[in-house]
Amino acid sequence: MFLQLMLLLCCGIMAQAQERINPDTTVVTHHTTTIKGQTFNYTATVGFQPVWNKEGKIVAGVNYTYYEREGIKDKTHRPIMISFNGGPGSAAVWMEIGYTGPALLNMDEEGNPIQPFGISKNPYSILDVADICYVNPVTTGYSRAMPGEDTKQFYGINEDIAYLSDWITTFVTRQNRWLSPKYLIGESYGTPRVSGLSYALQDGHSMYLDGVILVSPTELGIKRDGPVKEALTLPYMCATAWYHKALATDLQTKDLNDILPEVEEFTVNEYIPALSWGGHLSAEKRQAIAEKVSHYSGISVKDILQHNLTITTRHYWKELLRDRDFTIGRLDSRYRGRDIKTGGETGEYDSEMVSWNHSFTPAYNWYVRNELNFKTDVEYHMLASVYPWNRQNEHTGTDLMQAVRENPHLKVLLQSGYYDGACDYFNAKYNFWQMDKGGKFQDRFTIKGYRCGHMMYVRHEDMKQANEDIREFIKASIPADGHPAAY
Prior knowledge:
The protein is α/β, with parallel strands linked by helices and 487 residues long. The protein has helices at residues 2-18, 93-98, 157-174, 190-205, 226-231, 234-243, 249-252, 256-277, 283-297, 301-306, 313-319, 351-370, 396-406, 425-435, 460-477; strands spanning 26-35, 38-52, 58-69, 80-84, 103-105, 119-121, 131-136, 144-145, 182-187, 211-215, 327-328, 336-337, 411-417, 445-450. It has a domain at 226-348. It has 15 helices and 14 strands. The strands form three sheets. Strands 1, 2, 3, 4, 7, 8, 9, 10, 13 and 14 form a ten-stranded mixed sheet that branches. Strands 5-6 form a two-stranded antiparallel ribbon. The chain has a two-stranded antiparallel ribbon with strand order 11-12. Helix 3 packs across helix 4, helix 6 packs antiparallel against helix 8 and helix 8 (256-277) packs antiparallel against helix 9. Residues 2-15 have low confidence and may be disordered.
């Protein structure tokens, strides 16, 4: 019994030791890459920068990787990009080695894992036009709260924005980049994060941004309930059915870009009004709507009627390819899975996450140790538990709109994958419509769609185009010298 207790005590001490970090330390390496035919050197800095509380005590160490192009003497025209992923318990790894960074993990051209696992140079990285800092919020990546600190101070929509706005301000100051054009990019939950940060930095730190990039955005605190919530996913379903060749011939033979405006118009002008009538909808009209929804979604009229004209995404992922004995992915419906039971209302696992973890985890763990020379026994949390997350009082969409209104230079780029069923592209459009109900700021918003899912960059063709879209957005959003920030 004594031996067992000693073993448990030793294991506990080892686990605590493996989680200890130095909250203010970095490792620097130097590299060469070629992007768009241009060869240049860059510095990679990986490590930690502290989070302080109001009393000046270090309460956490936030892990980051910062890529900075060498040989740029005048940084006043050199943009800096702060990058976040989602979750909210997701590390920054996905965009770092899958999208915008100078290193790219090995996958096939459609985003499937291949062996040998590893890393190559990313010829489409935006490092040619901007320096990039990938940030892991507390508990993600290698970031950790200091011993004895309550993680509740970090876990929440507004808590997250508060400490990260302080952290970014310190980082920009330490890197001497106050004069540089500044950008935020966030994916998934990273979109409410950067939306809230855009105004927190502006209002609380007088840091005015040039651009915010939203990759696969969430609802941003903009409420939608009832018929609106139930109907807005239909265009996504149509795109997915088109990809899997599950539509009628008249639609299947068209290009996707020709179909989507048609189904969007039906959704707003017919589907939402019909659902608003509820049980008062006539039998004739109910049948007609069911037939149209079936036509656009690939789901049978019978199934739609049995579900009172609404198809949840969870049911859709199970139902669309049920007759082929496949399920489809939640975050990227190009991916197919296979359940033990063909029956049931929902799928048994997320096929796309299994595939992505298969590729990203070994590649990054090798890359950070061998290429960036950052060696630690602390585990890199790809997806961390940040429960319970305080979701009360979210107003991040409103915050972003406030930042846009107050800063005439600030522009926003939206990037969405048509096959994303978790943060679908039409709901993302709806955000912009509701944020700017008067239509006064539409020239500040740019919307780009891709034939991929939540992480549109895992598909080679879309990764190339999406990086080019960011590159063009940066160039277009930097004001000319001497141009005033005034209406």
